[in-house]
Amino acid sequence: MFKKITEPRSLSQRIETEIEDAIRIKKLKPDEKLPTEIELSKSYGVSRNALREALRSLDSKGLIRIEKGRGMFVNNYSLSQAVSSVNMYLEMNASMENLLQIIRLRQMFEPEIAAAASRNRTEEDLTVLREAIRSMEKCPADALTQEALEDNKFHKLIAEASHNFSVLVVMNPIYSLMPKFVDFVYGKTENRKENTLKFHWEIFHAIEAKDELKVKAIMKEHLLFTEQTFMNSNKVNGLKN
What we know:
By secondary structure, the protein is mainly alpha-helical. It has two domains: 11-74, Orthogonal Bundle (Arc Repressor Mutant, subunit A), CATH 1.10.10.10; 80-234, GntR ligand-binding domain-like (Four Helix Bundle (Hemerythrin (Met), subunit A)), CATH 1.20.120.530. The protein has eleven helices and two strands; from the N terminus they run H-H-H-E-E-H-H-H-H-H-H-H-H. The protein has helices at 11-24, 37-44, 48-60, 79-92, 96-120, 123-137, 144-161, 165-177, 182-185, 192-208, 212-234; strands at 64-67, 71-74. Strand 1 and strand 2 (71-74) form a beta hairpin. The model has no long low-confidence stretch (mean pLDDT 86).
């Protein structure tokens, strides 16, 4: 597996790519121990400096972990690591236009996610969804950030109630992002909280009743309301309706 490097490309980049590809195709499996630095540098025919640069990059990507006194191991790549990378990208590229596009992306996905939740939900899912709405009801009138977190939690719980792992991979970065831009997304629209709670209870009852068509329609209406709230609160030139 670990052969001498002969290509003119950066040695450290080539090593990084070779090990990363081996991890991706499961040639190197989660928790498998890698050879030592000395063994790897001999196998690749490179200096330990070039090797260490590659290993540092793999470590920063979360693909391997270096345990002092034990060695180097292939990581179990977790959902939180995947979300963290996408979340960083979304935060670094946040703008009014991009936030609007994210809201519209939610309009494409979340009605179908809610329908899946209505098919697959359990009694435990209903319990936590109900609790999330009641937590939002208890938010003080001026606690906009807390309200946004509870709103976000409700939508995330619907995604979890779909019992589809891929949904969480796609949507969690978006759910993590939204509360950080609460003033832009939620604004100070009159009766916003009352309207949001009304939508949440209607969505909850449709999921409880396993009514896929109804929950899709309500979720779509709810997210259109979110878009309108965003547009009314910001009134930024260049945003396209």
